[in-house]
């Protein structure tokens, strides 16, 4: 098996895990859990694992002032708010719909680079943006819960786009990924716990809910992240991003089959438009990098 084939397998397994775990997490909602508390548990459970990995590899935990600032800005506004918004959206709409709307983030990355770093938008990018906006409206209905869920999912994509842009334009890109992830999950555990406490979202759960939350934590924040990093190493970021479109498709299938979520023709059309616009955008970027 060559490097490219390994990268494809790593990436596909990671995206399938990312696509399945939202459904696992949503099962805990019926046991008294909620999106904010699940986000807290997801980071708390992997915190000691990242600590052990960093110590085992003999890496330093020391950061300079610039790195501390970047970890806070990118970590809080990019990662923390992404997960809180996305997990909260599952309380209002299906995991498949939420994941598709979250996958608008490549378009938001383009927009942020245009606004913050004056990177020009070409006709292809503008066309993708229009297609994605049309796709968004396919997921909307008149109920307030659906609108709230869609808004939360879209905002999760906005904050994740900031996370991607911040990673690319800060000192974080030169840090050890395990050290960065340790401080990231540490900060998220503290910040999200405070948020959950202030909102009154901390509840005592049955042991099964904690076990399922632990499964979500390990499969996403540890196994999924490591496999995705290996995929990027073997394939490159652009090709990995294209293969990652398997994630929302997996979420939709799992949501319909496992959670009995509805899937209308209009939502199918919206899904196709969003994924098509994302695929074209990332593929165009891949061709641009090859020139």
From TrEMBL:
The lineage of its organism: Bacteria, Bacillati, Bacillota, Erysipelotrichia, Erysipelotrichales. It comes from Massilimicrobiota timonensis. Keywords: Membrane, Transmembrane, Transmembrane helix. This is EamA family transporter. The chain crosses the membrane at residues 7-24, 36-56, 68-87, 93-117, 126-142, 148-166, 178-199, 205-228, 235-259, 265-282. Belongs to the EamA transporter family. Residues 6-138, 148-282 form the EamA domain. The keyword Membrane applies. The keyword Lipid biosynthesis does not apply. InterPro entries: EamA_dom, EmrE-like. GO terms for cellular component: membrane.
């Amino acid at each position: 098996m060559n490097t490219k084939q390994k990268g494809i397998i790593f990436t596909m397994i990671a995206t399938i895990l990312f696509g399945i775990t939202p459904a696992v997490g949503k099962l805990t909602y019926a046991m008294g859990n909620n999106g904010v508390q699940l986000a807290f548990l997801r980071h708390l459970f992997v915190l000691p694992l990242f600590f052990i990995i960093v110590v085992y590899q003999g890496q330093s935990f020391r950061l300079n002032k610039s790195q501390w600032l970047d970890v806070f800005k990118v970590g809080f506004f990019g990662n923390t708010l992404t997960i809180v918004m996305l997990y909260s959206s599952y309380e209002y709409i299906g995991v498949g719909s939420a994941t598709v709307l979250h996958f608008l983030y490549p378009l938001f990355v383009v927009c942020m680079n245009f606004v913050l770093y004056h990177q020009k938008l070409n006709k292809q990018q503008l066309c993708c943006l229009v297609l994605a906006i049309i796709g968004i409206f396919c997921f909307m209905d008149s109920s307030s819960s659906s609108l709230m869920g869609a808004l939360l999912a879209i905002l999760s994509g906005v904050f994740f786009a900031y996370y991607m842009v911040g990673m690319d334009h800060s000192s974080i890109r030169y840090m050890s990924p395990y050290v960065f992830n340790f401080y990231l999950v540490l900060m998220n555990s503290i910040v999200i716990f405070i948020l959950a406490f202030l909102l009154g979202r901390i509840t005592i759960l049955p042991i099964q809910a904690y076990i399922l939350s632990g499964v979500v934590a390990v499969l996403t924040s540890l196994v999924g992240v490591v496999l995705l990093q290996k995929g990027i190493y073997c394939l490159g970021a652009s090709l990995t991003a294209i293969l990652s479109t398997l994630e929302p498709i997996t979420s939709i299938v799992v949501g319909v089959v496992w959670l009995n979520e509805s899937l209308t023709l209009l939502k199918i059309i919206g899904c196709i438009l969003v994924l098509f616009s994302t695929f074209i955008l990332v593929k165009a970027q891949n061709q641009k990098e090859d020139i």
